[in-house]
Specification:
Layout (H helix, E strand, L loop, with lengths): L1 H18 L7 H8 L3 H7 L3 H13 L20 H22 L6 H14 L1 H9 L5 H27 L9 H21 L9 H16 L3
Helix pairs in contact: 1-2, 1-4, 1-7, 4-7, 5-8, 6-9, 6-10, 8-9, 9-10
Length: 222
């Protein structure tokens, strides 16, 4: 029962932090969305900052949501979290660009779109949280911008490589095409699930299939 409530608090906090921002969200808002008293929230978490850190920790370590915790959860659990998030950003960017640096022949455009979608979906909550609250968390925002720059550079590099090999059609502007592809992937992998004006009931699998179908057919050489 208590683990179910922790998950409910997590989900409510994600919704509120992304919709109205961290600074404007109060414990009472989270309690109302979960359907419990403010005192119950404080039984589980020492405060709003601990809830925010819990949300970010669950983003980079999905299994964390299933753990058992002593209540209330305090920031002692999240020492070094900011550095941990930065390391995840760096490792993710390195892994994503790895095939480009290695020049692996077997890698192709559909695989690129699939991998990019999966990476955006995996870290959706954390990325959207930083984008929404960048002025409240400037260090995280700075590192997130660097991560995005590496990601965009790798995407552009892959497009250049695939164009040279004749895998995809010629592109008039690789950088703008990269931005277009990334924004399409980001909406379907991230915003549609957490930050869309309309409520969508589309599975992540269906969202990925739509992206794959449209982007692959739009750019692959016939």
């Amino acid at each position: 029962m208590e683990n179910e409530r922790i998950k409910a608090i997590h989900d409510a906090a994600v919704h509120l932090f992304l919709q109205q921002g961290y600074a404007r969200t109060q414990i009472s808002h989270i309690a109302r969305e979960v359907g419990v008293s403010v005192g119950t929230i404080y039984h589980d978490f020492a405060g709003k900052q601990e809830i925010m850190h819990f949300v970010l920790k669950c983003t980079i370590s999905p299994g964390y949501l299933e753990k058992d915790f002593e209540r209330p959860v305090t920031d002692d659990l999240f020492r070094g979290l900011e550095e941990e998030i930065m390391q995840v950003f760096r490792k993710s960017a390195e892994n994503f660009s790895g095939r480009l640096k290695q020049g692996k022949e077997a890698y192709d455009f559909p695989s690129l779109i699939s991998d990019a979608f999966d990476m955006l979906a995996q870290y959706a909550v954390g990325c959207l949280f930083i984008e929404k609250n960048q002025f409240d968390f400037p260090v995280l925002a700075r590192n997130y911008r660097e991560y995005r720059e590496h990601f965009f550079a790798a995407m552009t590099g892959y497009l250049s490589l695939f164009m040279e090999k004749g895998m995809i059609r010629p592109l008039k502007n690789k950088e703008l095409t990269t931005a277009l592809i990334v924004e399409q992937l980001a909406w379907w992998a991230m915003d549609m699930r957490y930050n869309s004006f309309e409520e969508h009931h589309i599975s992540l699998e269906d969202a990925k299939e739509v992206c794959m179908d449209n982007l692959v057919h739009a750019y692959m050489q016939v």
